[in-house]
Structure formats: structure tokens, C-alpha cells
Design brief:
Elements lengths: L2 H46 L7 H17 L4 H27 L4
Helix pairs in contact: 1-3, 2-3
Bound molecules: prephenic acid (PRE).
The site of prephenic acid has 11 residues, from helix 1, helix 2 and helix 3.
Pfam family, one: CM_2
Enzyme class: isomerase
Organism: Streptomyces mutomycini
């Protein structure tokens, strides 16, 4: 192989892998959007029934489950846990805002 063939091969391979990465990133965005649609509904339900925004026992079960799934998928369980915590922290902020809004300005 000449140098320019190697360059062509590397460029083609990089482009092929990046197409796959772009598809996966799009799927992640769509899945997160669906997850947030569901959690928004949970936020409204919790606010209507005066339930606390966070449920640490539920989170502990989710973390245990995700760590196991990550291990079987050969993904770092610590990373899976960090990612879930990051998402859930944002969800809790949304829940708190929904609760404040549903309580009204005098609450
Ligand atoms: O399941 C709930 O009670 C939620 O509010 C959803 C959710 C989540 O994003 O998965 C968010 C906050 C809770 O602490 C636990 C889980």
C-alpha cells in the first residue's frame, strides 16, 4: 500500500465509524427526549399528590440494575452509574420546578 492508499483507507474507515457514532448519538438524543417526556408526567403526578421530587430508594434500585446491565454489556458500571445520576439530578430539578409552579406564587 502506498502512503496515499493508507490515507484513503484511514479516512474512509474514520468516516464509516463516524457515521455510526452520529446514528448512535441521534438515538441517544431521541431516547433521552422520550425519557424526559415520561419523567415530566411523573413530575406532574408527584406535584399533584404532594410527593417528594426525589425517591432515593427507587434510585438505588435503578443504579443496582443499571450496573448489572452495564457489566453484561461490557460497559464500565461506574460510568453507567454516573450517567444515571447526572440524568436523575436534572429530572429532580424539573420536578422541583413543576412543584413550585403548581404550588403557585403564594406558596
Ligand atoms: O421514579 C420516580 O419517582 C422519578 O421521579 C423518576 C426518577 C428518574 O429519573 O428515573 C427521578 C427522580 C427520582 O429520585 C427517581 C427516579
Amino acid at each position: 500500500m502506498t502512503t496515499s492508499n493508507v490515507d484513503e483507507y484511514v479516512t474512509a474507515e474514520l468516516n464509516r465509524l463516524r457515521e455510526s457514532i452520529d446514528n448512535i448519538d441521534a438515538a441517544v438524543v431521541h431516547m433521552l427526549a422520550e425519557r424526559f417526556k415520561a419523567t415530566q408526567q411523573v413530575g406532574h403526578l408527584k406535584a399533584e399528590h404532594h410527593l417528594p421530587p426525589a425517591d432515593p430508594a427507587r434510585e438505588a434500585r435503578q443504579i443496582a440494575r443499571l450496573r448489572q446491565l452495564a457489566e453484561s454489556a461490557r460497559l464500565d458500571p461506574a460510568f453507567a452509574e454516573k450517567l444515571l445520576n447526572f440524568i436523575v439530578a436534572e429530572v429532580i430539578r424539573h420536578h422541583e420546578r413543576i412543584a413550585e409552579e403548581s404550588a403557585g406564587p403564594d406558596a
